[in-house]
Amino acid sequence: MPPRFAAPDAPSLPLHVVEEAALAAWRAARPPAEAEWLNATGFAAGLGEVALLPGPDGRVAGAVAGYGTADKRARGRFHLAGAAARLPEGPWHLETALAGAELAAEALGLLLAAYRFDRYRAQPPLKAQVKAPPGIDAPRIGALAAAEWLTRDLINTPACDMGPEALEDALVALAARHGASVTAIRGDDLIAQNFPLIHAVGRAGPQAPRLLDLRWGDAGPRLTLVGKGVCFDTGGLNLKPGESMGLMKKDMGGAATAMGLAQAIMALGLPVRLRLLVPAVENSVSANAFRPQDILRARNGLSVEINNTDAEGRLVLADALALACEDQTDLLISMATLTGAARVAVGPDIAPFYTGDEALAAALAAAGAEGADPVWRMPFHAPYEAMIEPGIADLDNAPRGGFAGSITAALFLRRFAGDARYAHFDIYGWQPADAPARPKGGLGQGARAILGALPQVLGL
């Protein structure tokens, strides 16, 4: 069932939202018995505090959620989602002075808090349902939540049930829901149609590698998304250690996030011509796996020396980006769980992005802040271009030394983006510990920032 707010006409209880600084005045305006109850329970309106309010008949008459201080709220997001998890079953409505982007973000968090991944084990649902607060764009927030649910479901599904075939099935189902079309190039047809890097990375996998191509919309600016769909990454012949392989079901997180973003774009009916390219492969170990020091030629003719088979994501993206640039596009965006270096740089909670376009960078940063989707611009640092040029070939897929790993990966991808207006997101796609509205597991990153930036960037 898609995420949804409680029915607007359902009888509901109030959830009061009170900051620490406003508690004394708010409490003084409440009935004396209620104020005494809050004093007795020690409620101080700290961030995350929740107190149930008793009615004269002994039943719950409402609740109050502490909203802390601005400094403490800046350390996280979706604060009311944590309160919703502690409310009794039934419909609730917000009593709050929040407005604008802050209210919209909290409303989104309330929908995201209801997410459960229950494919393999039943999970207790969120008991409370909250009505859409006045002043928000409820259909848009519902579309954002549904997009995030799709992304999480795709990432959370293990590779035994989410290989290239299943990822293709998921994309076909997404297209069918919104009247889009999908074509697929599979197996040796990738060689025949000049996608040598996608084929090389995926040919050792148990399922044929493929390039998936979704198209939707027949008018408006052209938007092309490219999502890394490595459904499992062993590292290839440069085999990962067991600890590093443990989360590699999420290595298709770029594809999953791009698919969630595409769903939101189509559900909201944005006036764009959307194209989504997903190279879907498994990076496996077999007799026909590609090898270190192989030199492969990409779709656009550049030669690539393979110095680590565990740097495979940039290879499959390279062919897809080259294809994207063969058609006109007004904006090209790639999304990938690409490098551990990005996690070292900014941690798991921030999606770093690269672009040489100042207006695009500013729009993404502003939309990320407004949409509770933290992003951070990283540099296409030109002096590092030499690090990805091995001499024996045009490009090196894994420069030695380990310095600036996320930057060199982005520079590698830029060689395949041509003259397009381009941004690359190096995301993590995983929530390492439970947080409000973000249970441990798969997580979309960057999609809301991109969606929020599109009106300004594409002139919608």
TrEMBL record:
<dbReference type="InterPro" id="IPR000819">
    <property type="entry name" value="Peptidase_M17_C"/>
</dbReference>
<comment type="similarity">
    <text>Belongs to the peptidase M17 family.</text>
</comment>
<dbReference type="GO" id="GO:0006508">
    <property type="term" value="P:proteolysis"/>
</dbReference>
<feature type="domain" description="Cytosol aminopeptidase">
    <location>
        <begin position="308"/>
        <end position="315"/>
    </location>
</feature>
<protein>
    <submittedName>
        <fullName>Leucyl aminopeptidase</fullName>
    </submittedName>
</protein>
<dbReference type="Pfam" id="PF00883">
    <property type="entry name" value="Peptidase_M17"/>
</dbReference>
<keyword id="KW-0031">Aminopeptidase</keyword>
<dbReference type="Pfam" id="PF21337">
    <property type="entry name" value="Peptidase_M17_N_1"/>
</dbReference>
<dbReference type="GO" id="GO:0005737">
    <property type="term" value="C:cytoplasm"/>
</dbReference>
<dbReference type="GO" id="GO:0030145">
    <property type="term" value="F:manganese ion binding"/>
</dbReference>
<keyword id="KW-0378">Hydrolase</keyword>
<keyword id="KW-0464">Manganese</keyword>
<dbReference type="InterPro" id="IPR043472">
    <property type="entry name" value="Macro_dom-like"/>
</dbReference>
<dbReference type="GO" id="GO:0070006">
    <property type="term" value="F:metalloaminopeptidase activity"/>
</dbReference>
<dbReference type="InterPro" id="IPR048816">
    <property type="entry name" value="Peptidase_M17_N_1"/>
</dbReference>
<keyword id="KW-0645">Protease</keyword>
<dbReference type="InterPro" id="IPR011356">
    <property type="entry name" value="Leucine_aapep/pepB"/>
</dbReference>
